[in-house]
Amino acid sequence: MLELRSDFVSQVRRILVVGLFFIVPAVVAAQAPAAPLKVAIVGLEHGHVEGFLKSLPQHHDIELVGIADADPALFAKYQKKFDLPETLFFKSMANMIEVRHPQAILVYTSVGEHRHAIEIAAQYGVSVMVEKPLTISLDDALAIRRAARHYNIHVLVNYETTWYSSNRAAYEELAHGSLGPVRKVVVHDGHQGPKEIGVPPEFLSWLTDPAQNGAGALYDFGCYGVDLMTWMMHGEAPLTVTAVVNQDKPQIYPHVDDDATIVLAYPRAQAVIQASWNWPFGRKDMEVYGATGYAITIDATRLRIRHEHDNDERLVTAPPLTSPENDSLTYLAAVLSGRVQDKADLSALDTNVVVTQILDAARESARTGRTVRLSKLGND
Predict the structure, then answer these.
(1) 32 lies in some domain
(2) What is the pLDDT of residues 54-88, one digit of tens each?
(3) Domain assignment present for 380
(4) Is the same domain home to 7 and 135?
(5) CA-to-CA distance for 203 and 187, rounded, in angstroms?
(6) DSSP 322
(7) Measured between alpha carbons, how far is 97 from 90 in angstroms, rounded to an integer?
């Protein structure tokens, strides 16, 4: 009887040991940090690339593996400032992808070059994040969407205001019914002007070229409000678009507008988007008015809220955004890993195809002095 018990105990021990042999590596693998997302930069002529390079040391989940730009002087500029290794630099985007095998491309070219960069990346099956706006024409936007679908890649658009907790709080107020149905949204975006605030010369040169930027302030800052309104309308396009532009500083910006107002008309709502290179101070704020309340953002974190039956408005600080929806790089990594679905949000391609349709119509309205009625987009 004692021998039987001893054999039984021995068998149990062997089973436990074998089980642990398989369990321990699985636990260790589950606890091991994920490998960094390998990204590459395409283009150095967009001033926002400096913000990326500054933030990179804090992003241990991101590894920069290559930089492609046809101008060696631009690479030398950033190489010196950020102590970048010479081996990162390539003149050819295609060559850089073939050698470095990035998992995502960050595009910092002119807006007019976005389509070209995305189509090259798509052919290699590499996903892309571009700086706002998506592109300069509806034709380009539809071509980008076709390429993304054909090659099964993600295309995301990065707006600074996407990562404002105040905008998220205003959206939640509307989504939860606290403001009633949306009736009017007013968005203000811009600054004193790109030359006035001292953007780098390579940035200024294409910002003020309609062939590379689409327009002036109309595209540069109008895109923020159009993106926010399209998000709040869950991707619905307006019925009509009306735009008025001014050229208040032709001696500085002879080829593009420097002030723009865009009016979007929906069946039961309006949006008024004021974009300017003529504000006395930089601003990015929004007013959301519903049938029973309002939410007015002040800056990236604060907003004023008043609901039906409130005697007065309240000044509140929005709760911080949580990872992975708190910054562009973390969000990109989450989308590519499948932790976040590429949904109809501020960064999404479908949202930004509608944004481009609206901006294209606004440019046409400003050119002709007429309201433009939008056609329903196909799903090609």
Answers:
(1) no
(2) 999 999 999 999 999 999 999 999 999 999 999 99
(3) no
(4) no
(5) 25
(6) P
(7) 9
- In the sheet with 62-68, reading across from the earlier edge strand, the strands are 89-90, 62-68, 37-42, 104-107, 127-131, 155-158
Q: What is the DSSP letter of 263?
A: E
For residue 324, give its domain range. 162-373
d(CA 82, CA 74): 12
Selection from 241, 139, 229, 143 nearest residue 184 by Cα: 229
Task: Write down the residue that tokens 């930004």 correspond to.
Answer: 352
| Same domain, yes or no: 181 and 120 | no
CA angle at 19 for the pair 18 and 21, rounded to the nearest 5°: 65
Count of domains observed in the chain: 3
The string of pLDDT tens digits covering residues 310-319 is: 999 999 999 9
Q: Give yes or no: residues 122 and 79 share one domain.
A: yes
DSSP track, 214-252: SSSHHHHTHHHHHHHHHHHTTTPPPSEEEEEEE-S-TTT
Quote the radius of gyration of the chain (alpha carbons, Å).
25
Whether residue 338 sits in one domain with residue 202: yes
Q: Are 96 and 233 in the same domain?
A: no
